[in-house]
Amino acid sequence: MKKPSSKIREEIARLQDQLRQAETREAERIGRVALKSGLGEIEIDETELQKAFEELAARFCRQDAKPRKRETPPVTAGAAAGRFGEA
Predict the structure, then answer these.
(1) How far is the C-alpha of 87 from the C-alpha of 84, rounded, in Å?
(2) What secondary structure letter does DSSP report for 16?
(3) Contact 50/75 with Cβ under 8 angstroms?
(4) Please, which pLDDT band fits residue 1 given cuts at 50, 70 and 90?
(5) What confidence tier does 61 reach under pLDDT thresholds 50, 70, 90?
(6) 55, 49 contact by CB (below 8 A)
(7) Tell me, what's the pLDDT at 66?
(8) In whole angstroms, what is the distance from residue 4 CA to residue 70 CA?
(9) Cα gap 81→83, rounded to integer Å
């Protein structure tokens, strides 16, 4: 039996909320580690910082032997401040 569109929309909304929560947890975790390592103190362009994070992620992805596909768009200057309140 097929689901009615209203049930599918409810499920999509619930999954989107779960995704937002998971992304927030991940961002907070990475942010805490970044601050502990001193990254909050350095002056660096957002694009350069993102490139460094991508290189770090690639290093660990090779160890896992599971290539990861980028699912989020690149961070533009100022975008991080608007999303999490810090730059």
Answers:
(1) 8
(2) H
(3) yes
(4) confident
(5) confident
(6) no
(7) 53
(8) 32
(9) 6
Residues 9-15: contacts with CB under 8 Å, at least 24 apart: none
The neighbour count for residue 34, using CB atoms within 10 Å, is: 13
**Residue in the structure block whose two tokens are 């992304």:** 23
Distance CA 5, CA 51 (A): 41
Encoded amino acid at 25, one letter: R
Classify residue 63 as left (phi > 0), alpha (psi -120 to 50) or beta.
Answer: alpha
The more confident residue out of 39 and 87 is: 39
Q: Which among 66, 86, 67, 65 has a CA at the least distance from the CA of 75? A: 86
How much is the pLDDT for 82? 45
